[in-house]
Amino acid sequence: MTLTKRIIPALDVKNGRVVKGIQFKQLQDIGDPVASATAYQDAGADELVFLDISATQEGRATMIEVIERVSAAVFIPLTAGGGVTDLASMKAIIQAGADKVFLNSAAVDNPALITAGAALYGSQAIVGAIDAKWDDVAKMYRVYTAGGMRPTALNALDWAETMAARGVGELLVTSMSADGTKKGYDIALYQALQARLKVPIIASGGAGSQQDFTAVFQDGAVDGALAASVFHYGEMRLPELKMHLYEKGIPIRL
């Protein structure tokens, strides 16, 4: 049985509102998270990702109240994160109605948190999130934390392997270089990841056309494709995108 590929709108939330930027900057207000989530579900989204983009920088927990409101309004799988620092914050997100929690900055600071979370909730509930940017000097994809603000010494490919070994059920990998540019997904990044990993990979950053989705599924061989700008601004409708992918022979839920 062939697993269908997933189309996943991203809801970046700051101060209770959905926002979107370019390469993690120049944030613009998009609207209410519940209204956005409901609209995406009705349009055929397979899953939703909820990210509290300022939680880590502001040193606070994810906005649980917003997760509760979103999860009460939709029945498709919801992944949430941002500011997850310990098992208690993971528990709060799951109890608020999220199906999966993603770990980013906290996992870099404390990799044992991945293992503990997977042991408690199962690998299927733990998503490893990686923000990666090509470093031309070091000739590697460098891992960034704190919402893309803090460079680390980690090679993204090595870190992805570590996260998988620690027990994440899938990886959500954002190319910071491509994010918000609408010039296409970073296919080279996902091909490099696929060569080293067996866990499902969700691509994020750079979607600008239907062909970009086709390319990341066919050439990048990812399991899911996440996007925000093209959906938020009405530049691409989910039903038309899914029909396009179906016609290209990509297994998709219509």
Automatic annotation (TrEMBL):
Pathway: Amino-acid biosynthesis; L-histidine biosynthesis; L-histidine from 5-phospho-alpha-D-ribose 1-diphosphate: step 5/9. The active site is at 12, 131. InterPro entries: Aldolase_TIM, His_biosynth, HisF, IGPS_HisA/HisF, RibuloseP-bd_barrel. GO terms for cellular component: cytoplasm. It catalyses: 5-[(5-phospho-1-deoxy-D-ribulos-1-ylimino)methylamino]-1-(5-phospho-beta-D-ribosyl)imidazole-4-carboxamide + L-glutamine = D-erythro-1-(imidazol-4-yl)glycerol 3-phosphate + 5-amino-1-(5-phospho-beta-D-ribosyl)imidazole-4-carboxamide + L-glutamate + H(+). The keyword Metal-binding does not apply. Keywords: Amino-acid biosynthesis, Cytoplasm, Histidine biosynthesis, Lyase. The keyword Cytoplasm applies. Its EC number is 4.3.2.10. It is found in: Cytoplasm. One of its GO terms (biological process) is L-histidine biosynthetic process. CDD domains: HisF. It is an enzyme of class 4 (lyase). GO terms for molecular function: imidazoleglycerol-phosphate synthase activity; lyase activity. Its main location: cytoplasm. Heterodimer of HisH and HisF. NCBIfam families: hisF (TIGR00735). Belongs to the HisA/HisF family. IGPS catalyzes the conversion of PRFAR and glutamine to IGP, AICAR and glutamate. The HisF subunit catalyzes the cyclization activity that produces IGP and AICAR from PRFAR using the ammonia provided by the HisH subunit. This is Imidazole glycerol phosphate synthase subunit HisF. It comes from Leuconostoc lactis.
